[in-house]
Amino acid sequence: MNTSSDLSASFKAYDVRGIVGETITVETVTAVGAAFVDSLGLAGQSILVGGDMRPSSPEFCSAFAKGATRRGADVLLLDLISTDELYFASGLLNAAGVTFTASHNPAQYNGMKMTRPGAVPVSSETGLYDVQALAEQYLDRGFIPPVDKPGQIGVRDVLEEYSRFLRAQVDLSASRPLKVVVDAGNGMAGLTTPAVLGDKLLPALPLEIVPLYFQLDGTFPNHPANPLEPENLRDLQAAVVAHGADIGLAFDGDADRCFVIDEKGEPVSPSAITAMIARREIARARANGEETPVIIHNLITSRAVPELVLREGGRPVRTRVGHSFIKALMAQEGAVFGGEHSAHYYFRDFWFADTGMLAAMHVLAALGEQDGPLSELGREYEPYFSTGEVNSKVADVPAAIARVRAEFENDGVTVDTLDGVTFTASHGNWWFNLRPSNTEPYLRLNAEAVDPQTLHDLADRVLALVRR
After folding, report:
1. Is the pTM of this model over 0.85?
2. How far is Cα 25 from Cα 99, in angstroms, rounded to an integer?
3. What family is this protein classified in (predicted)?
4. Which residues does the annotation mark as catalytic?
5. Based on the domain organization, do 440 and 319 belong to the same domain?
6. CB contact set of 74 (below 8 Å; sequence gap of 6+)
7. pLDDT, tens digit, 9 for 90 and up, residues 351-375
8. If DSSP codes are grouped into helix, strand and coil, which group holds residue 424?
9. In what order do the strands lie in the sheet containing 345-347?
10. Are residues 143 and 15 in the same domain?
11. Which of 95, 130, 157 is the last residue of a domain?
12. Strand ranges of the sheet holding 247-251, from the earlier edge strand across to the other edge
């Protein structure tokens, strides 16, 4: 097979991601556009095509549209969009679609996130590799055969509809005045924040927005648009304190994730945000007559999350790490909300898809309806102490896990293997999870305990075994 026809370097489990001009090119994108239509049976239907602010996105949107229309699908170009705008449009219009983004990856990358109609994700388990295989066939032939009736290309701007929809989900008009610093990282939140939280398209809210890096620039001149890395939050933390702001929000490049900073410049953990939003969504669902609303959480979020869900009258459901698992389980359970430690937040009223902006609005509402600072509000949802994710490079991952298991099973712990291995103390003072990386020789430790000393001792003990 011609090496140009091997797309395995860019097709991942959940999306397509590669280096522009090397593993993702105009030629390959055109073939993927054709294969997307054929694999999902979309000839004669309208599909949605948009992209983020990366320099290559407009050209890739055009190439995808060319391949798709050649195989008989109509294309609606959405132009510049955040990833959750694609999910919104796919749900609203019940149309399949693609957005060109590489999320938080550096400037030389781009990629594709695809959905079926209704914002149902296209992953390796739901057809992504079928798209890859057919695209490779088209590249092998060097020709995409046209259908008798090729599709047409139109344009649709969904930003105002998206903004109105989110404001209908969370009413911020009665909030106390809040000063909000937003770090868009030169990503798509620079477009969506003024539309949703500002007065660019809709009436002003009682929010004073202090913008950081709102200029759309896919070369990321200020810092990488990856708030998961602590160094990328430093500008926001300093700005929150300098401006005397009530809260800081940081979005990743395609704005589907949101991280929160309190008025002291300290991060509020995604587990605390998950619990905070879960309480609000349970209350809303119960007020609408739902007896026991379901909340999804992955197994390395704080145990404070399921404890709160039970107290509030909901039913917590634990799942593996990974958004495809959460989205599938959300739909299966009819869950009202789901949260991950990586700051992905999923909403039933958003077609079970993740949206950083809607999560941010829930946090603003929770803060704005009471008088205390965010640091106090956040503490209510963070009763435990955690390590975060600690990576260890390990030559023999199974042997390392076996050493830990042999040591801790003598302590009468509960062990489960839903995702990696989770150990829970019988007295309830701590738990930890060890998960192997799918792509690298790493073991990832996440641990939580009732106090800092217990956590410190536990982590030292586990890591000594892992790194022996």
Report:
1. yes
2. 15
3. Belongs to the phosphohexose mutase family.
4. 103
5. no
6. 45, 46, 47, 151, 152, 153, 154
7. 999 999 999 999 999 999 999 999 9
8. strand
9. 315-319, 294-298, 337-339, 345-347, 353-354
10. yes
11. 157
12. 207-212, 178-183, 247-251, 258-261, 267-268
